[in-house]
Amino acid sequence: MGSRPVSYLFLSVILITQNVHETKAGYNHNVAFKPECERRGDYIPSKCVYNWTIDYRMTGVWYNTRRNSGKPVFKYDNPDQYYYGEQSNCTRLPMSESDLDDVIMTDGGYRRVITINGQFPGETIVAYNGTQLIISVTNNLEEEGVSIHWHGIVQRNTPYMDGVARISHCPINPGETFVYRFIAYPPGTHWYHAHLGSLRSDGLHGALVVIDPAEERTKAKKDTDVTMILTDWFSQDTSTIASNVIWELERFAPFMQTSPSIQGSFREGTCFYQTKQHDGMDIGVWPVQSILVNGKGTVCNATHGTSRYNCNERLEEFIVPRHKKIRIRIINAATQYALKVSIDSHSMTVESMDGNAIQGTEVLDYLIIHTGERYDIEVATDQYRQTPMQPVNDGYFWIRVESLEEFDQPNQNLRNIITPKTGWAVLKYEGSPPRRKPFTTPKQCPLSNPCEILNCPFREYRPKGSNYYTCIPISRTRALGSLIDRNPVPMPTSADNFQQIFLNFHFSGSKALRSSINGHLFRFPRLPPQLYPERDTNYECDEPCTGDCYCSYTEKLKLNNVIQLVLINMGIGQPGMAHPVHVHGHHFHVLKIGYPQYDANFRYLSDTDDVVCDDPFCSSARWNDSTWDDYRAWNGSLRVIRPISDINNTENETAEPWIPEVNAVDPPLKDTVIVPVGGYVVIRFKADNPGWWFVHCHLEFHYLEGMAMVLQEGEPSEMPPVPSIIPKCEDFEMSDKEFEDVLKWKPKVTIVGSSKDKKASGAALPHLHYFLPPLMFAVYVAYSW
Ligand SMILES: *[C@@H]1O[C@H](CO)[C@@H](O)[C@H](O)[C@H]1NC(C)=O
Ligand SMILES: *[C@@H]1O[C@H](CO)[C@@H](O)[C@H](O)[C@H]1NC(C)=O
Ligand SMILES: *[C@@H]1O[C@H](CO)[C@@H](O)[C@H](O)[C@H]1NC(C)=O
Ligand SMILES: *[C@@H]1O[C@H](CO)[C@@H](O)[C@H](O)[C@H]1NC(C)=O
Ligand SMILES: *[C@@H]1O[C@H](CO)[C@@H](O)[C@H](O)[C@H]1NC(C)=O
Ligand SMILES: *[C@@H]1O[C@H](CO)[C@@H](O)[C@H](O)[C@H]1NC(C)=O
Ligand SMILES: *[C@@H]1O[C@H](CO)[C@@H](O)[C@H](O)[C@H]1NC(C)=O
Ligand SMILES: *[C@@H]1O[C@H](CO)[C@@H](O)[C@H](O)[C@H]1NC(C)=O
Ligand SMILES: [Cu+2]
């Protein structure tokens, strides 16, 4: 690889349909964020309106919505040139780079995606805290129901707007429009995604940024503030993959080690062994084809430098000013893979997690982000290196997004080291020469200065080659003081208002190991409980359940109780997987993360000693030390009384219970947290948001299989009333008697000329257009060619 200018790599940042819709800024990630509804002076807009249509599109196709035609794009005689197929006379014509900006390229392959107003990912919503968002969603799909969940929004007073189809409301049927209306709260980097089946992984997702207006007046506001949505990508629909996974067809995953041009069919002799992460535990069920950044990626090795016919090289490029502190809002929207993010030559400081500010003192080299999570990072753009490969002023750097894959299975000793799947994007300093590819190399982590990695799904990394690492658990970060002032850690004042529930996210079952919580595979209730609060809509669970129940697993929370959930990941069925657990309706405090026992190489050895299981699947569990059940034991202020240096002093243990590594003073707030294999996470929140809230593993295949449950917060009488006009979805059946009556009906015999009938028919003709709200008309975005 020489240093010749790489002219084919022209990466434009002007994105699809930026100017097609006047009411919004579009998916514009390269400017400092401005809310859609601008405020003037101190005026904060009370409402922002969005108008969405959900549609199918193909990747790699250039659409002309005015002419209702699509033109596939492809390479042909020159690996640096894309062409499109002109269907009127079946010829191919070269495409300009700016034309290509209107194409959803993903990794260069062709497949169906689900889009919002023709875009993937959907537009970024930016709103001020406290603003009312009105988002009209028209389902223009042929056969799938739709619902949109606003991940990070707590939906106070509006639990039926939470968008979990079959829990919070009914699926939006094809052709229907549902107008979501809720308050943009709390501030932070959030996102939205489909929450029925697997449409989220087929493209239905985007960023939702809530800005605290107070922040705008402080130096917390950045000149450059961009979103970076990460996802793993496959050449097939997620529902196809999900049904294949159930039959263990992943062994013959069709696109292993192949380019997108030979995808789509099972190939004899291609066998995928589920890959392993550092602790020896499983990662994704299905091999990932590529990793996308803001919808762009490649199946090839982008750092390799050679252009090939099957390599898409239109990667995402972030153009940033020099000598500034910029903010990148990272969202992992992946189906299944945790992703490790780094920027060559740069370190990063984490500002917030799931939208909640932390004391930004941790300078990191790598950030591991699990699906569902968000991290805001600050990056100083002051790195210049003069090397043969990186001439001065050549401000191009690789952003690397890697899977955690380290081993594959044939080698049981975990010695078969594999290259992780990698996605690439480019950080480009303003004023750098055009059309360059970065020449930067990955980070070096010498023993004298080991690399810091935030949020490992295990305790520690063993050195690799000459590189050394330190894992920082998120429980070691501390919430910003002002955030704790607004959201103090709820403290129980008596045993009566403290509810502690152990929830085991794991695989269980006597026939086959399936995704479950406490041994329960989730089955959606007959009707959305939120819409039928007084009816028992659940499929009842057999209790005790020892690993095989298939039911609408629900735990009741008493209103205003302090809720402590102990999320565990234990029992037979190992090797397991770390599960990113998302709790709807709340941001919770992370009090403690407990890890299992590891061997000298930090491979999983056995489950934690802190928790005792009552059955082999660990469908019910408790603390080993029963004094930990005492609500006072978790009073974090005791941590201050007994310093770390006094850890071995047990003299006053009973009088002053103390649990190692608990932070109940200023723990971080999150809404999604990773539960390590063999370990646990203690989270706490106050049950002050009545509603039915979904709790689930955010890995798509696990949630689809049953790793989900419902928290019923408050009694039905304590729930906010549901608007009577909200659409309902009920089972339907006619009795024999009712059907007999149906058959008895006969059309009325009309006597022609009867004045009475004329009058009746006139009255029966309503003016239809009065009844059709304007929203019922599907919106088609007009692209300009
Ligand atoms: C949505 O767009 C359609 C067509 O552009 C328009 O008629 C309708 O009023 C819009 N609805 C809202 C809520 O903005
Ligand atoms: C085919 O149609 C396109 C678009 O109308 C036109 O630009 C091109 O010249 C045509 N090619 C031939 C060979 O007719
Ligand atoms: C955000 O808006 C809510 C009301 O919706 C308000 O209670 C809160 O104080 C606002 N600011 C912050 C920083 O939470
Ligand atoms: C990409 O290619 C370079 C150069 O051959 C190699 O060093 C690197 O390991 C490759 N990366 C991946 C993820 O395959
Ligand atoms: C927690 O500890 C603090 C400091 O010792 C004390 O003031 C407070 O009363 C304790 N709370 C409970 C519920 O025990
Ligand atoms: C409970 O804790 C004790 C002391 O640490 C330990 O010896 C024992 O193995 C633990 N029990 C379980 C079931 O882990
Ligand atoms: C506590 O005891 C353990 C085992 O005896 C020892 O390794 C450790 O250094 C002690 N810690 C402190 C802070 O004294
Ligand atoms: C134990 O508690 C007593 C009474 O609060 C106190 O005087 C003593 O110093 C404590 N001992 C230790 C080792 O903390
Ligand atoms: Cu999971």
- Which ligands does the model contain, each kind named once? 2-acetamido-2-deoxy-beta-D-glucopyranose, copper (II) ion
CATH architecture label of the largest domain: Sandwich
Distance between the termini: 37 Å
- CATH-defined superfamily of the largest domain: Cupredoxins -  blue copper proteins
What's the overall average pLDDT, rounded?
84
* Main sheet record: 7 strands, mixed
Summarize the amount of helix as a percent range.
under 10%
Number of helices: 9
GO biological process, one term: iron ion transport
Organism: Lingula anatina
Protein name: L-ascorbate oxidase
GO cellular component, one term: plasma membrane
Structure description:
This protein has 785 residues and is mostly beta strands. The protein has three domains: 22-75 and 108-221, Immunoglobulin-like; 238-260 and 267-472, Immunoglobulin-like (Sandwich); 488-644 and 653-718, Cupredoxins -  blue copper proteins (Immunoglobulin-like). Helix content is 7%, strand content 29%. The chain contains nine helices and 43 strands. The strands form ten sheets. Strands 13, 14, 16, 18, 19, 20 and 22 form a seven-stranded mixed beta sheet that branches. One 2-acetamido-2-deoxy-beta-D-glucopyranose binds at residues 649, 651-652. GO terms for molecular function: copper ion binding; oxidoreductase activity. Belongs to the multicopper oxidase family.
Sum this structure up briefly.
By secondary structure, the chain is mainly β.
